[in-house]
Write a structure and sequence with these properties.
It is an enzyme of class 2 (transferase). It contains six helices and four strands, in the order E-E-H-H-H-H-E-H-H-E. The protein is mostly helical. The protein has a domain of 96 residues: Cobalamin adenosyltransferase-like (Hypothetical Protein Ta1238, Chain: A). A hairpin with a 5-residue loop joins strand 1 and strand 2. Helix 1 packs antiparallel against helix 2, helix 4 runs parallel beside helix 6 and helix 5 packs antiparallel against helix 6.
Length: 190
């Protein structure tokens, strides 16, 4: 259990922060940027939830919890050492990826196929979900870059890849099952 009695520690005043294994790194380190952008994604989901109800709100709540799991996963390097550790750190699982895929499939079944790209917007919820999508894509790009330099959990990257797809499809659901999508008209303002 986490207990936070004091919020500021002053340990980061010189521009460093501690990873999950205690190693101190620069606050601009790629790993910190990756899990920091996952945290930013979580904040955008919180905004989207202000407009969500029912199943959509419940699914977004589950995603918020997953995003904390993902941050915990990404802030903990040394996956090889963790395999032998007495205490196993939290890692994203294939089941979390599979849940997103199942939810995407259910939502997508209610939609007509796209015949055009769509612009972010429509309902307030759809607009927020598109913001979630773009921020999660940025988190994915940073995590891909991190994976090119250090070992990361494959399920973490898969989750981020599915998550942006989830937000896209959910945005269409929030736009009256796609009927209120705003279609891109190429060259419309030439």
């Amino acid at each position: 259990m986490v207990v936070l009695n004091k919020i500021y520690t002053k340990t980061g005043d010189a521009g460093t922060t501690a990873l999950g294994n205690g190693t101190r790194v620069e606050k601009h380190a790629l790993r910190v940027n990756a899990y920091g952008t996952v945290d930013e994604t979580n904040a955008t989901v919180g905004l989207a939830r202000q407009h969500a109800t029912g199943d959509m709100d419940a699914q977004l709540a589950a995603i918020q919890n997953d995003l904390f799991d993902l941050g915990a996963d990404l802030c903990r390097p040394d996956m090889e050492k963790d395999a032998q550790a007495e205490y196993q750190p939290l890692r994203m699982s294939e089941a979390q990826v599979a849940r997103l895929e199942a939810e995407i499939d259910v939502m997508n079944d209610a939609l007509e196929p796209l015949r055009s790209f769509i612009l972010p917007g429509g309902s307030a919820l759809a607009a927020q979900l598109h913001l979630c999508r773009t921020v999660s894509r940025r988190a994915e790009r940073m995590t891909v870059e991190l994976a090119g330099q250090e070992a990361i959990n494959a399920s973490a990257l898969q989750y981020l890849n599915r998550l942006s797809d989830w937000f896209f499809v959910a945005g269409r659901i929030a736009n009256d099952d796609g009927r209120a999508d705003i279609l891109w008209v190429p060259g419309a303002n030439r």
